[in-house]
Amino acid sequence: MATARKLPSGNYRIRVYDKKTGKYVSFTAETKKKAEKLAADFQIGAAVRASCVTVRDRAEEYIAIRDNKLSPSTIEKYRKAIDQQLSPDFVDLRIDRITDKDIIAEVNRLAGKYAPKTIRNAMNFILPIIRDERPELARHIDLPKVQKKMKEYPRAEEVMHLFRGDPYELEILLALCCSLRKEEIRGLKPADLSGNILTINRVKIDTKDGVLVKDEAKTVESRRKIELPPFLVQLYRARTGDWILATGGNALYRHYKYVMSKAGYDLCFHDLRHINASEMKLLNIPDKYAMERGGWSSDNILKSVYQSTFSDERKHFEDVINEHFSKVYDTKCDTKNNKIAQIRYFKRLR
Predict the structure, then answer these.
(1) Which domains does the chain have, with CATH numbers?
(2) What is the per-residue pLDDT across 102-137, written as a single tens digit (0 to 9) for each?
(3) C-alpha dihedral (329, 334, 338, 343), degrees to nearest 10
(4) Which of 15, 33, 95, 348 is the most buried (most CB within 10 A)?
(5) How many angstroms separate the CA atoms of 129 and 193, rounded?
């Protein structure tokens, strides 16, 4: 423990670290002995309190102190891990009594119910919390490996044909042509489009407590402006009401899955962003502009991505992308001869 230091006032002060809050606590007294006694009593009390703390307690605490920094979807994912995926017997274990055998048994139990990615997400959330107080634990825990998948994607032409005239055509095309996430589309309002420039700075997400609207996107990079092609501007302007998407997110997702499954594809809504990224790759759009347009982030490009919002160079690539999707939109899909359906390519997910 640190030693108390004499203050100009003549009193003594000592600071000790509180692991629960992540902050230092100061104790001041008339004598050095009294100050150090206060600090020692605090640490003893903290140790007693810590001995009764469970995995659930620390996990809830972790979320609470980061509530304003984590995205709503991340918080929801963490809470789902605590409340639904991890067993009550595990999360209610006292951290001072937990063993490697308990952790291995929990991983084995999860392996019988969930996919490897779900297991890794849950354990990668909870294990660092446990190790914070018990660093000797879980040093050699083997988590299931996520298997690489081969997904068959349609080209943009086929997706456009499948949803031509559909009630959700605008939402599908915003994801396909502009790489918007579902929660970003749900957060759009008519006023977010000025001329042909769409501003993305709001998300709407379903949580266990209801629908949550946050005036901030997933990451700093997600707050962006995108130039829409004329056909999308026309579809966007046709919408009225407070929100562009009048229905809930689940309705949009279920309808999308239904239409795609009838066409022979097992794809999630987020896969439209993969198709968009692949289309930009085919157009030789530089990664820098593709990342900025899609709101992707990367440690090695953060400092170089943000220049003037619509520089001459970026404007050029915006025009290339919009011209491409405009031509695709105006081209009739020949489903009779199944030409488009045969233009498929594989993309390895990482």
Answers:
(1) 5-51 (no CATH), 55-133 (1.10.150), 151-348 (1.10.443.10)
(2) 999 999 999 999 999 899 999 999 999 998 888 888
(3) -40
(4) 95
(5) 43
